[in-house]
Design brief:
With about 60 residues, the protein is α+β, with helices and mostly antiparallel strands. The protein has helices at about 15-20, 45-55; strands at about 1-5, 25, 30-35, 60-64. The strands form 2 sheets. The protein has a two-stranded antiparallel sheet. A two-stranded antiparallel sheet has the order 2-3.
């Protein structure tokens, strides 16, 4: 699984980094989250899907 953030939609609230800090890291300077892995490790896939579902503007794009 791969994941990316659509920065045209991202509101910068950092919820994804709270849900799955193993994959998302919040950048306080840029006020945006960043994806920290190329490929999501299997043990974090459910957390990434949950972060995507909870992302209000739909900025998290999960690719199977």
């Amino acid at each position: 699984m791969k994941v990316r953030i659509d920065y045209d939609l991202c509101m910068g609230d950092g919820n994804c980094a709270k849900v799955c800090p193993e994959v998302f890291q919040y950048d306080d300077d840029q006020m945006l989250a960043r994806v920290t892995v190329d490929e999501v490790p299997g043990q974090y896939e459910q957390k990434v899907v949950r972060a995507a579902e909870e992302c209000a503007p739909g900025a998290i794009v999960v690719e199977q």
